[in-house]
Amino acid sequence: MSILSPSILAADAMNLQRDLTDTALQGAKWLHIDVMDGLFVPNLSFGYTTVQGIRRFSDLVLDVHLMIEKPIRYVEHFCKAGADYLTIHVEADSPENTKAAIEKIRAMGVKPGIVVKPKTPAEAIAQYIPMVDMVLVMTVEPGFGGQKFMADMMPKVKKLRQMIDEMNPACYLEVDGGVDLENAGICKENGANVLVAGSAFYKAADKKAFVAQIEQD
Ligand code: DX5
Ligand code: ZN
User: Fold this and answer.
1) What is the CATH number of domain 3-215?
2) DSSP 22
3) Pocket flag, ligand 1, residue 147 (CB < 6 Å)
4) Tens of pLDDT, residues 125-159
5) Catalytic-role residue among 12, 34, 37, 93
6) What is the atom index within ligand 1 of the atom nearest the CA of 149?
7) Can you say how many angstroms the Cα of residue 96 is from the centroid of all Cα atoms in its chain?
8) I need a labelling partner for 104 at 20 to 30 A (CA). Which of 63, 65, 83, 169 fits?
């Protein structure tokens, strides 16, 4: 069973509440929230007060993706704001701080995740796999929605699926960036079981069918 995590970055910023209600009505169970700091990636997006607002309003599983430098500075804020999954980039800090941030997230009762940019190899996160509930493979350079899916990330997804099966089989394997109904199949074949979709989901004419097609195995 796969899970769709619609990326709210592609929703209408002036109508987040309307779009959130609709996302749940269409059958989605998760919501992907991209947090950007203008340093780790050349863009800005939501902060923890937005996560807090969404949490008060919605029962969706909040899958928060931090694209920020030294995430350890802010993980407590995002945990308190109501994230269910909180995912940090391996490239964003030293191994010591990355480990400490994961431990902090866990201690606050939130599920930690670790994410790799396209140029970062699978081996870079090997040591964190036993500590996390989610591994995320970027299938675009992080920073913007609406980019083209990088099919050449599939060998890395496959490799991480093997590593997860050996080290922590309950850990989710998520893909993020350019995912649509056409490439969802190869993501799943290579072992991903959580698929983020922003533009493709929010532009879909039939969102209910979109959720069903992604979540069928
Ligand atoms: C990119 C973000 C993605 C983005 C996905 O930096 O991490 O979550 O919102 O959007 P689409 O599906 O449009 O590529
Ligand atoms: Zn994301």
Assistant:
1) 3.20.20.70
2) H
3) yes
4) 999 999 999 999 999 999 999 999 999 999 999 99
5) 34
6) 14
7) 22
8) 169
What distances in angstroms separate CA 71 from CA 40, 94, 121, 204, 212, one per listed residue? 10, 11, 20, 33, 34
Rounded distance, CA 145 to CA 124, Å?
25
DSSP at 136? E
User: From CA 48, how far away is CA 76, in angstroms rounded?
Assistant: 10
Backbone angles phi, psi at 42, to 5 degrees: -80, 55
**Backbone torsion region of residue 191, taken as left when φ is above 0, otherwise alpha when ψ lies between -120 and 50, otherwise beta:** left
Mean pLDDT of the chain: 98
**111-116 β-sheet, strand order:** 3-6, 194-197, 172-176, 134-138, 111-116, 85-89, 61-67, 30-36
* Tokens 């396209």 -> residue: 118
Terminal C-alpha separation, the chain: 6
DSSP output for 29-88: -EEEEEEEBSSSSS-B---HHHHHHHHHH--SEEEEEEE-SSGGGTHHHHHHHT-SEEEE
Is-catalytic flag, 34?
yes
Query: SS3 for 123?
Result: helix
Which structure tokens are listed for 184? 């969802």
Q: Phi-psi bin for 53: left (phi > 0), alpha (psi -120 to 50), beta?
A: alpha
Q: Which residue has the tokens 């619609």?
A: 6
Q: Whose CA is nearest to atom 4 of ligand 1?
A: 145
